[in-house]
């Protein structure tokens, strides 16, 4: 039913089913498929550092595992009770334990520690001055996204989709209104928790254009599994245009069908939770719908944003995301179609 | 060094001629240490072997329950967008899976092994506080049964075994499930603490003469370190879970931000317990490995001192790691780097032990029986899990894999490799001692192969799933995610693993139909539990042995082993020895069977459970417990014959 929710836009990760099935070990050791929610497919300098760290540690760990297994199996192989097979004497045993249990870790562990700490210092450094500031507020079970200006005022509010300019650092202020969530876009950076009562900061710079999927990584209740979002990295002009459009309030509909749709919206329970800037709908509990039609997905990355999915989501949200906070609303066909047309016009 | 033969058994063979004189003593001992039978008798038993056996069997049943839960979870995740389980059920099942495995399987299983094996290994007749022992078991049983009963009645907790606030506060989890969870977790920690105190005192004060600390078997050392860890790790959890229960029931604000509380406080308290908990499960398993390696290599372990120091070092360092569960909460850089350093340091004592075992096995005349196979399986799985453990100790790398399937893979490698495989080795190793008959070797080998293959098939792909962005604790995933194939493989692996467990479980059940015919020392072990019959008599040893070396049974040599004289057979007397050198210095008289530990456990449980409904139950529970303890401690005349003892 969700065909396309994973990959709604133009970019995409090649899928290689056969390779995954046949050679998972090979894939793990030597590189997997490039996905849009994949820590081994880095798209920012930050994620690149983490991926490099992973590959380095993976190779070293594999060698150590092989060495220990070779030692064990050699030892066991020499235990078949044949002639000429003798236990290790004290000195040989001591040397084995010193080499494997002391010298090896004494060499490897400081290297792990030093590289880890230096990468951590770099990643947790203060974000650059020119960084774009985006406030991300975790809600059950969606993401409120607010673009802030220099005075920390929100200039644009959206949900479950973050557009960022390529090449410019982006600083995320991570907050939560309810329980603990975790902000994670594997292709762009590691995760950082959103904890009520504190503001965590993460920043990154996208290297390339593309669309990457992020997902909540801290268990946050019944719909934790369907709390995703998309990050769209685009050239700065495209981003500026998008932000300008996003800042603007919704256009007053001229078309009678659309006007009827707005009327349906305003006279239904939707307005208690949702807002559409430029209209009387000012709810603050649920996602801002001012530019709903420009978003790629519905229900926090669960459904592709199509007319059919929108209708299904409005009429029976508890079927799509059982336990979520959106109550079902019943519309007859005469109300539903104008409403859908209106919502679809909110570009 | 050879295995004891049939001739060592009482009344058999050439020694039979000297038995009649002894058997009067044996008969008297048997009467003195008798455990009441029958339905009501069951509630009064206090002997350590009875209690230990109950802990082991009960925790194994919980292991099977948690295993079934994991199969349901894996079935849901086998294909994308599956509707086999509702999100509610999924969350309840993974909460119960984690809670059961950690609180109701792993720790009680290790305690059970300790309670059963340690007194035999150190050559004493019972543990220091037999009634407390029984009390601990009833607390454990009541806690487990209550939590499951509540779950079946629709009050299952669904906040994860880690129960992070604020999600688990009433505002976000209104049902009774988490109330049951918070109170029962507090409650069961009483059981762990009781067993810990008990084992520490027993190990320190009741070792057979001559078993100085530096001659103590490594399994006993591991148990000693574990029990000290329990003493220091469980109280923070009890404080935390009591605070959570108070936040939920009487609206205190320890964790609620709006009331000035601090959500991270819960994480600190929980992981200050939670990380040592991992080592509380691992360290006894290391002791099991040492026992099995020594016995099946048929030679003393290389580096006894290094092994002991490693285990003690793990016990200490385990308390300096808890923040590595909180690397993504935004704590200061310098602080978390300290925890990275401490976390990678654990690799040194672990590595020393691994290589000491390898050095011991190298070239020895190995006996390839099932217990050794599980140990060899342990090596691969545990080393792999340890290596990914060093990886996740790195803060930046952890930000990528924290709370993903990579982590799920990592800690299952550590815990199944580091605890479940050794426990299965221990089951095959000590089963003849406990139940008097051997488990089937063919079944054991099949069980091992299925478990080993199934385990790796299930959990190895999860490393890749995590790196490919799959978070933990998700009840579903989209079909476009690309996680399908590996998830399906993991699910198939889980079923193969379960089949391996089933083989052992069925074999263990069938063994009860067989005639108990296991020799005293079927594997040729070196420790004292193999010096008595299989299963041991009520009184463990007719004569308390004197220990002459580190490898007690192997160093007896030609001359007959010395024994302790002067303990009365007519009452429950045990020898108390000095802490360091185990020189005899007193005799302790242990109490006999009684119903009071059971009644006291019920009274405490009433207080805890009632508290969920109304705070008034706290004083009521206190009062009932007081009554229970008065009955328990009511002074009785000591001495007298076994008949009098039973009459009381």
Please tell me about this protein's structure.
- The complex is a heterodimer of chains A (347) and B (648).
- By secondary structure, chain A is α+β, with helices and mostly antiparallel strands.
- Chain A folds into 3 domains: 45-123; 132-247, Cupredoxins -  blue copper proteins (Immunoglobulin-like, Sandwich); 256-344, Immunoglobulin-like (Sandwich), CATH 2.60.40.
- Chain A has 10 helices and 12 strands.
- Chain A has helices at 17-22, 24-30, 45-77, 90-123, 236-247, 256-266, 270-273, 307-315, 317-320, 333-344; strands spanning 132-139, 142-148, 154-159, 161-165, 170-176, 181-185, 189-194, 200-204, 210-215, 228-234, 297-298, 303-304.
- In chain A, the strands form 4 sheets. Chain A has a 5-stranded mixed β-sheet. A 3-stranded mixed β-sheet of chain A has the order 4-10-9, with helices on one face.
- In chain A, helix 3 packs antiparallel against helix 4 and helix 6 crosses helix 10.
- The longest helix of chain A is centred in the N-terminal third of the chain and has 34 residues, at 90-123.
- Residues 8-32 of chain A have low confidence and may be disordered.
- Chain B is globular.
- Chain B is built from 19 helices and 2 strands.
- A two-stranded antiparallel sheet of chain B has the order 1-2.
- Chain B has 648 residues and is mainly α.
- The model of chain B is unreliable at 1-21 and 640-648 (pLDDT under 50).
- The longest helix of chain B is centred in the first third of the chain and has 35 residues, at 87-121.
- At the A-B interface, helix 1, helix 2, helix 3, helix 4 and strand 7 of A face helix 4, helix 8, helix 10, helix 11 and helix 12 of B.
């Amino acid at each position: 039913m969700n065909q396309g929710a994973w990959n709604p836009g133009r970019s995409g990760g090649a899928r290689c089913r056969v390779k995954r099935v046949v050679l998972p070990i090979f894939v793990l050791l030597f590189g997997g498929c490039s996905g849009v929610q994949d820590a081994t497919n880095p798209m920012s300098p930050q994620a690149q550092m983490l991926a490099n760290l992973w590959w380095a540690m993976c190779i070293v760990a594999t060698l150590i595992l092989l060495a220990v297994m070779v030692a064990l199996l050699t030892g066991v192989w020499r235990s078949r009770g044949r002639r000429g097979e003798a236990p290790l004497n004290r000195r040989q045993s001591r040397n084995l334990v010193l080499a494997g249990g002391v010298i090896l870790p004494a060499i490897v562990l400081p290297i792990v520690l030093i590289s880890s700490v230096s990468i951590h210092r770099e990643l947790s450094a203060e974000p650059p001055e020119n960084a774009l500031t985006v406030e991300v507020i975790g809600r059950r079970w969606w993401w409120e996204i607010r673009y802030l200006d220099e005075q920390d005022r929100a200039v644009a509010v959206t949900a479950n989709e973050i557009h960022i300019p390529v090449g410019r650092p982006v600083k995320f202020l991570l907050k939560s209104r309810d329980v603990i969530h975790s902000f994670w876009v594997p292709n762009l950076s590691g995760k950082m928790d959103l904890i009520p009562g504190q503001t965590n900061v993460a920043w990154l710079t996208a290297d390339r254009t593309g669309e990457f999927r992020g997902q909540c990584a801290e268990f946050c209740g019944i719909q934790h599994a369907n709390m995703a979002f998309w990050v769209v990295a685009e050239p700065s002009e495209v981003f500026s245009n998008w932000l300008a459009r996003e800042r603007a309030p919704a256009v007053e509909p001229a078309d009678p069908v659309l006007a009827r749709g707005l009327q349906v919206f305003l006279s239904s329970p939707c307005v208690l939770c949702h807002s559409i800037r430029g209209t009387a709908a000012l709810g603050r509990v649920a996602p801002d719908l001012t530019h709903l039609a420009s978003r790629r997905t519905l229900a926090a990355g669960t459904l592709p944003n199509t007319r059919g999915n929108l209708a299904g989501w409005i009429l029976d949200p508890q079927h799509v995301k059982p336990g979520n906070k959106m109550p079902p609303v019943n519309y007859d066909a005469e109300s539903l179609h104008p409403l859908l047309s209106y919502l679809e016009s909110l570009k | 060094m050879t295995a004891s033969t049939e001739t060592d058994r009482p009344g058999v063979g050439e020694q039979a001629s000297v038995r009649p004189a002894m058997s009067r003593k044996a008969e008297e001992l048997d009467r003195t240490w008798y455990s009441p039978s029958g339905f009501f008798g069951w509630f009064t038993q206090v002997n350590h072997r009875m209690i230990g056996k109950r802990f082991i069997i009960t925790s194994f049943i919980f292991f099977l329950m948690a295993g079934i839960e994991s199969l349901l979870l894996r079935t849901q995740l086998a294909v994308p967008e599956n509707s086999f389980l509702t999100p509610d059920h999924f969350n309840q099942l993974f909460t119960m899976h984690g809670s059961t495995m950690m609180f109701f399987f792993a720790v009680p299983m290790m305690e059970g092994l300790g309670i059963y094996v340690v007194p035999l290994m150190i050559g004493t007749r019972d543990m220091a506080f037999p009634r407390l022992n029984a009390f601990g078991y009833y607390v454990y049983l009541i806690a487990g049964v209550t939590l499951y009963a509540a779950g079946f009645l629709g009050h299952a907790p669904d906040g994860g075994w880690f129960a992070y606030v604020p999600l688990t506060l009433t505002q976000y989890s209104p049902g009774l499930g988490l109330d049951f969870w918070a109170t029962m977790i507090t409650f069961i920690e009483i059981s762990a603490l009781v067993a810990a105190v008990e084992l520490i005192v027993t190990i320190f004060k009741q070792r057979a003469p001559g078993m100085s600390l530096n001659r103590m078997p490594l399994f006993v050392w591991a148990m000693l370190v574990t029990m000290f860890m329990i003493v220091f790790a469980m109280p923070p959890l009890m404080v935390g879970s009591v605070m959570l229960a108070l936040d939920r029931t009487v609206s205190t604000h320890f964790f609620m931000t709006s009331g000035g509380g601090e959500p991270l406080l819960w994480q600190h308290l929980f992981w200050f317990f939670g990380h040592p908990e991992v080592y509380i499960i691992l360290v006894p398993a290391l002791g099991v490995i040492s026992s099995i390696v020594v016995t099946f290599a048929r030679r003393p372990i290389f580096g006894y001192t290094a092994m002991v120091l490693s285990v003690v070092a793990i016990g200490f360092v385990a308390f300096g790691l808890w923040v590595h569960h909180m690397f993504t909460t935004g704590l200061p850089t310098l602080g978390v780097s300290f925890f990275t350093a401490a976390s990678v340091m654990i690799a040194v004592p672990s590595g020393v032990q691994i290589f000491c075992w390898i050095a011991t096995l190298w070239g020895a005349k190995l006996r390839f029986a099932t217990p050794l196979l599980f140990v060899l399986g342990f090596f691969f799985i545990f080393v792999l899990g340890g290596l990914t453990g060093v990886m996740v100790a790195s803060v930046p790398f952890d930000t990528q894999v924290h709370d993903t399937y990579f982590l799920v893979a990592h800690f299952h490698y550590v815990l199944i490799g580091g605890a479940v495989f050794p426990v299965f080795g221990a089951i095959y190793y000590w089963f003849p001692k406990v139940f008097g008959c051997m488990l089937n070797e063919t079944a054991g080998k099949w069980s091992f192969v299925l478990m080993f293959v199934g385990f790796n098939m299930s959990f190895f792909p999860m490393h890749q799933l995590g790196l490919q962005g799959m978070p933990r604790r998700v009840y579903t995933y989209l079909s476009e995610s690309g996680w399908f194939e590996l998830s399906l493989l993991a699910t198939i692996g889980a079923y193969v693993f379960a089949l391996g467990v089933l083989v052992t479980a069925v074999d263990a059940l069938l063994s009860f139909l067989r005639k108990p015919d296991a020799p005293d020392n079927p594997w040729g072990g070196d420790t004292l539990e193999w010096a008595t019959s299989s299963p041991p008599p009520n009184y463990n040893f007719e004569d308390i042995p004197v220990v002459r070396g580190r490898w007690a049974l192997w160093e007896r040599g030609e001359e007959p082993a010395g024994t302790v004289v002067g303990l009365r057979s007519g009452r429950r007397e045990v020898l108390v020895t000095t802490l360091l050198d185990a020189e005899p210095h007193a005799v302790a008289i242990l109490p006999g069977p009684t119903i009071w530990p059971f009644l006291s456990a019920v009274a405490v449980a009433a207080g805890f459970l009632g508290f969920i409904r109304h705070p008034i139950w706290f004083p009521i529970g206190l009062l009932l417990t007081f009554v229970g303890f008065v009955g328990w401690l009511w002074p009785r005349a000591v001495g007298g014959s076994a008949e009098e003892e039973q009459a009381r």
